Predict the structure.
Amino acid sequence: MPKTKAQGIIFGILMSITMAYGMEVYNVAVKEGFSLLPGGFSSMTNQVFLDALIEASYMWVFVFIFSNLWGNRIGCLLAGRIIRPDDNPFFDILIRSGCTVLIMCPTMSAVASVLFSIVMGGGSPAEFPAIWVGTVLKNFPMALLWNLFAAGPLTRLIFRSIFLKNDQELPEQPAEAGAEA
């Protein structure tokens, strides 16, 4: 998708923001106990979104930094061992996204464990390994699904809308058989 270094930075910022916000909504809802209520996450209140926005306002910076330092690189190397150049582009996106989450979820779970459980939560640093593993186990399924079905597609949509040239029109989609014109 990104063709230049500047486009890569913009794409990275967009992806970092969408991933951080989605994960913070999830983690705030879990922290506030909504997952344990009879209605589960359907019992969430609007306050969850505001609280998540506050946390995401600085967590996206960590996501951006660590994804650029090693998350994207190692994820791409892992994906390169699975995909081939002639593979379907959709398959390519799925594998690259999954491999990046495989690296970034443990990384960001470590950051969150230190910040929220030890520094701000007063937990014992000696308990870090257990806190970190528990955080990875809680976050990995959501991080993978959020990346594949929400953050990734939304980021690509926003990115395309920013960099689509005004004079370039999208190709027309053929009408389906029986569809009214």
